[in-house]
Every structure is written in structure tokens, then in C-alpha cells.
Prior knowledge:
- The protein is of the alpha/beta class.
- The protein is 45% helix and 15% strand.
- The protein has eight helices and seven strands, in the order βαβαβαβαβαβαααβ.
- It has helices spanning 23-34, 46-57, 73-87, 110-134, 158-182, 197-200, 204-214, 223-234, and strands spanning 14-18, 38-43, 63-67, 92-95, 139-144, 184-191, 245-248.
Amino acid sequence: MENILDLFRLDGRVAVVTGASSGLGAGFAVALAQAGADVVLAARRADRLRDVAQAVGATGQRAITVATDVSDPEQCAALAEAGMDAFGRIDILINNAGIGTAVPALKERPDDFRRVIDVNLNGAYWAAQACGRAMKPGSSIVNIASVLGIIKSYMPQAAYAASKAGLIGLTRDLAQQWSGRRGIRVNALAPGYFASEMTADIPEEQLMGFLRQTSPLGRLGVQHELDAAVVFLASPASEYITGVTLAVDGGMSGH
């Protein structure tokens, strides 16, 4: 009988993580390596990937870095090609690259709105396309959406919320297309508010007041709480799960 903990192992697998230069993405990369995966690290800020690659190496796993703007389909194709050249396979894609704005709808400039959609939604599609072409049955794609794709924000974030709601819809469709025919599971995570670059600029008193009103747990999430969910959805432990959005939000979406 198989040990249940072995189902969470990623030995011999290769994971691509976009937006891996800092914050949640860097944490995901290290967590996947701790579970046994080699990692392809992608971000626009290539110089900041070196530190993450060192952290992956400290786990005993291998890492390569690839400068990538996911809003460019050709760069996403080059990312998948680099992963295949280095490791000969791609088993996992963590679509984490994302940007956000907090601008009232009547003041938001068209180019700013388009840029958020282009990175958060279109970029996830281009990365999934590129990696999906190389993936074999048993592979897993995890799209990092947001609780703001499910519920309202307390800030004006039309572009961000629309991009993440779209990403949840994209997750369902790709799961329908690829899970049965190609054996590639596609799921989404919807994080609540975590300590990250995106929450660093929000006044702490305002943010904590909002969380106490809207979340049963009443606090920010901690990186390892999201890491565990990423490893779960990437691993054989979740092999009967596809097309779902798992909210990791302290109960906010069910409040």
C-alpha cells in the first residue's frame, strides 16, 4: 500500500514557474523543489532570478532561469523550449506572473487596463499553450488567480478583478479540453490577501480592518499556507481534481 505522503512527492518532475523572481512565485519555486522537482524559473527581472535559483539549489534540485515577459507568445514559446532543452520534459506549470492596479474606473487609462489583462490573463494562456504542447499525460497546470475573481475588493481594481475572473474561466475551459484527451489537469488557486509586493503598499491599519470584517480568520495569509496548496495541485495527490478553483483566503469567499 502506497504511503499517502508519497503522493505529494514530485521526484523526477520538472516545474515551470512564471513570476518567480520574488514574492509568492519565489516561494512556490522553492516549495516545488523541496517536494523533489527541478525548476524552470521565469520572470521579466532576470537578475532577481539568480537568488531564487540559489535557493532551489540549496534543496538539492536543479534550476535554470529564463527572462520572460509572458505577455509575448514568442517569449513563452522560448521559455518552454528552454525547459525542454535543459531537462527534457515539462510536467508542471505554475502560472503565477501577474500585475495589478488600484485605479477608479473613471480614471483608468486604456493602456493600463490592457496591460493588466495582457499579463494576467493572456500571458497565462500563452504560457499554458507553450508548455501544454510539451506536456505528457499526468502533467498539471496551476493558474494563480485571486479571491478578487470571486468576490468584490475594497479597492477599485477593475482590471485586476476582471483578469482573475477570466483566468478562472480559462481554467475551466482548458481542463475540459486537455484533462481527458491529453491527460493534463488544469486547476486554479484563488489566494486571499497574503504578505507580498501587491499588498505592501496598502496601509496596514486599513488592510487589517478589512480582513477582520470579511475573513473568519481575520489575518493575512502566510506563504507556506499557499505553497502547500500549490504542491497539492501539482502532485499526484490531486490526480482526480481538475477544472476547480481552490480558494486559499482565510474563509473570505465563503463569509
